[in-house]
Amino acid sequence: MKLRLLLFGLSTAALLTNCARRPTKLKIYDVVINHVTVVDVESGQLRPNQVVTVSRGKIVEIEPADQDSYAAKQYVNGNGRYLIPGLWDMHVHFRGGDSLIAANKKSLTLFLAHGITTVRDAGGDLTPSVFRWRQEMDAGLYAGPRIFTSGPKIDGPGAYWPGSLEVETPAQISKALDSLQRLRVDYVKIYDSRISGAAYLETIRQAQRRGLKTTGHMPYSVTLGEAVKRGLDATEHLYYVFKACSGKEDSLTALVRNSLGTSKPLGLFAVLPAVYDTYSPAAAARIFKLMAKHHTAAVPTLYIQKTLAELPENDHAQDTLRAYIDPKIQATYARRLASARQLSPAASAFGQKLNTKFMSLVPQMQAAGVMLLAGSDSGPFNSFIYPGASLQEELIMLVQAGLTPLQALQAATISGAKFMGVASRTGTIAPGKYADLVLLTGNPLEDIANIKKIDAVISRGKAYPAASLANLMRAVRNR
Fold first, then answer.
1. What are the tens digits of pLDDT across the range 247-289?
2. Are 35 and 65 in contact (CB under 8 A)?
3. Residue 355 belongs to a domain with what CATH number?
4. 124-136 confidence digits (pLDDT tens)
5. Helices marked H in 88-155 — which ranges?
């Protein structure tokens, strides 16, 4: 009996010993960000002292930080820091032909290093390269932002930008849209260098029937109201919104139409002074209400307007970021710089006035319920609009124009995701969403300029601390 009890005791002791020695299975995350303040860009609320876990490119959990240990391949200290969704630049360009493919590719690094984890390519002539970059970045071959692209622009015969799909008749429009659908572009970008008013509206109509999203410039021979009612999803820049704010819009549109068959057709810049002089608050309220009703967004691009208006007095020779812009792309800046230096003092002064007026439209559109999307218009030929940094400056200008820091942040995060139809996957910080995040050392809701204080960027679930971002930048610096 005593022997039986002894064996039982020994067996039990051995079992307990084995249990004690058996390692507890601890989940190993790809990234853990601990003790961080999470910024909710929808509500504007701050959630302090949170732990955010990431695996396989997605956020797994967000919960109050406690004494539990988290195993991670990359551990990011969030103490005293603020976590926001990765920023979106909703208007960039990759273009310039085959000789600028490598130069354009360098800009992908600049976007990421400045907290931009998603960009919307607004048309160019490097579509095959853009699709290849997208696949390579998704495969983890190198770092850069997610890309949505329109592929080639749609324009009229003799289009200004190389690679454009030139249309005039309904049949040609149908063929162009067939081509874009075969490419599987994310939306349709329409340009206004040569397209007729009729072809512009017909392109919107046909694209809408196919379920394709449309955005773009707009010929002054049509009204924005006509385009909105046809289904235009977004208007790029504010020149076209501004024309719709004229109390004489119909008369000015008729004047442009009647001039098209003459030796001196009127274009946008010829008509802008008359638009400025006939600005009507009532007309502005009407078009903003119509845009909100039809869910037509606006991409203000205030920073490029300001930069171009100031070119006659600023040659940007001392810009530190020029060192990271490929010399071939810097060469494309010369055209706008030369044009700016030929402007008369009166024309330069008008450019400054126009910039101020454009800024005044932004809070009015926001108050009317128009979706605003933050975009920089960076890319070759757009002088000194540096990838990444220019989007940061755009947000600062949106706040200077009258938006709250939260509203500006929304224009560069959740609004972009909603516009592109992917808000269920990205644009906010929530379990199951893409781990595209930016860690800041300052609260952006207190001062939007804090978006420049980047401590780390998380892209596709991989963390890039400040030192890693600096190394990425060093790799693309001109030798």
1. 999 999 999 999 998 988 998 889 999 999 999 999 999 999 9
2. yes
3. 3.20.20.140
4. 999 999 999 999 9
5. 101-113, 127-138
**40 in a structural domain:** no
- Does residue 330 fall inside a structural domain? yes
Give the structural domain span for 252.
87-139+173-425
**Assessment of whether the complete model's pTM goes beyond 0.90:** yes
Q: Which residues contact 92 (CB under 8 A, 6 or more apart)?
A: 107, 111, 119, 120, 121, 122, 375, 376, 377, 378, 379, 387
Phi, psi of 256 (to 5 degrees): -65, -45
Q: Is 34 helix (H, G, I), strand (E, B) or coil?
A: strand
Residue type, 322: R
Residue pLDDT, tens place only, 163-218? 999 999 999 999 999 999 999 999 999 999 999 999 999 999 999 999 999 999 99
Number of domains in the chain: 1
What token pair was written down for 342?
A: 């030929």
Asked whether residue 71 is domain-assigned, the answer is: no
DSSP one-letter string for 54-101: EETTEEEEEEE--S---EEEEEEE-TT-EEEEPEEEEEE---S-GGGH
